[in-house]
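Cross-check.
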Amino acid sequence: MSEGTLTPPIAAAPDAARRRRDWIAFMAITVGSFVAILDVQIVASSIDQIRAGLSASVDEIQWVQTSYLIAEIIAIPLSGYLAPMMSTRVFFTIAAVGFTLSSLACGFAWNLASMIVFRALQGFLGGGLIPALFATLFLLFTNQRDRTLSQVVAGMTTLLAPAIGPTFGGWITDALSWRWLFLINFVPGIGCALVVWAMLDIDKPNPKMLKNLDIYGALFLAMFLGGLEYTLDDGPRHDWFDDGAVTASALLAVVGGTLFFWRAFAARQPIVDLRTFKDRNFAVTSLVSALLGISVFTLNYITPVFLAEVGGYNAQQIGSVMMVSGLIMILVSPLVIQLEKFLDPRVTIAIGVLLVAAGSYANTALTEDWGGAQFLLPQALRGAGMIFSFVPMTNLALGPLPPQELNNASGLYAVTRNLGGAIGLAMVATLVNQRSWSHWQALAEQTRMSRPAVHDWVAATSAALHPQLGRASEAGALALLAQQATRQVATMTYSDMYLLLTAATLLAAVLIPLLRKPVLQAGSAGH
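Predicted model, tokenized:
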């Protein structure tokens, strides 16, 4: 099919029974993908409780997250080969059952080593669930109305999970225990597996692909993405290449990446087909998705941290702030569905990206007194922007592709977004330390005791503390000054990060003119 041409919807709408069956199967896949995405975030919020429960050190417990992320990012592109080989129905069912069983194993882990092994299995099997969401919606729904609605559902699923995950995880740990972070996956995991096995029928297995399985390509892919993920995840915590393990993982990523790309073009049937990037719209939307991934993942990290460290918010209060973007997505989605019918998708994407950038920029006015009321507008802008951009981007990226390429393309599309998020988090984690130090240096100069204003403030505060302490307390005044300075440094640092994310989002907007306008084939106008 020619680049930039949308797959036309079928002339006759499916019968009611078949349409209902397809939607039930799609919603089951949506639940499975949601749980897999959510599992990273809910664990991250309770890592200290897990560390205490497993008697692990601060450095050791990070492997609970790192092992999951490495396994997941390797599995996502591999699923593009394994799903058509087994059939989407069989592959998803195996992945969902395996993810559920490995989740239970994590819940009953008896020490750190067992937890790391089970988390790696959970991540690998969960990675197979994520791209199935995108591939399936295009294979199931050729009717334009159903396809647009399913894209909105998929978009909210992908975007909501990272937003609510930390709060949800903190609530579960407080109300039950950290082991329930994993045990709660049993019902949705088995439920979606049973539904998909019974109701999904979109392709047939292709056993011949097993004979041509590129083992070397899979190994090189694992070296490349595994090394890259470890470098990005652990680099900021260990001052990057000052740590031997980070240096080794970076070298592994370089060697693995070189061999993987060579193999991708040399093998007769590569494990990941990179030729999909020849489609200009797919390549550009993947890059835009990666840049927006920086915004999604990073803003969902720094906003809760600011609210907790500076605002003193608890998990429930943070959740109420973060859920604003999710509520706006739900409210705006009907408008997006209507715009899809007549508006150039490139315009819709541009509107969405600019709204995300505006939301990020609004946060640069951050002060230490900011709370839920001040974050309301930025969160609303971001929520509207993400759903505006996500739906038409997915359609431009995957809509023109022939069915046999969708599984591979969905894996590539998902992994670029995840890599964007990983790069954004690594970049921000590094810059937070650097900017904090710079702001501390500047603030230390302004708060020297030799400055008359500072001396007078300390004296006045010491006197104000006198009735409570029974004596003048210069130490108490200095402690309050240090506390205020810490809050101010954190506020200025996070404001810098919001500005950086604004720039990254605007860079995505610059790429939008490179997209080709989709051309509907004759007879595709009906819905």
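The beta strands are 5-6, 519-520. Residues 1-13, 520-527 have pLDDT under 50 and may be disordered. Passed to J.P. for a second look.
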